[in-house]
Specification:
By secondary structure, this protein is mostly beta strands. The chain is built from no helices and 8 strands. A 6-stranded antiparallel sheet has the order 6-7-1-2-5-8, with no helix packed on it. The chain has a two-stranded antiparallel ribbon with strand order 3-4. The radius of gyration is 15 Å and the shape is globular.
Length: 95
């Protein structure tokens, strides 16, 4: 089964949370922050402006993106965790 987003929605898969700090301290599950870097899995066609012109998407499948905290809708499909976010909730492309 696959997820095909509509309008300006983007399906992302969150990257793994850091297990240790840069100084080598191992983090417990309670101390880990929700990761904000995600991989784009699927992209909708884009939204239409009030004149009916299609606004193209600025991200593509495979991009690593920085997502706003607490944004989107979490979905579990075939044992994988995904998040569906609006293009406006994507803050930057990570290069």
């Amino acid at each position: 089964m696959t997820i095909k987003p509509l309008s300006d929605k983007v399906v992302t898969r969150m990257t793994q949370a850091e297990e240790t700090t840069k100084s080598g301290i191992i983090l417990t599950a309670a101390a880990k922050e929700k990761p904000s870097v995600a991989e784009v899995v699927a992209v909708g066609p884009g939204a239409y402006d009030k004149n009916g012109n299609l606004i193209p998407m600025t991200v593509k499948v495979g991009d690593k993106v920085l997502v706003a905290k607490y944004s989107g809708t979490e979905v579990k499909l075939d044992g994988e965790d995904y998040s569906i976010v609006s293009l406006a909730d994507i803050l930057a492309i990570v290069e």
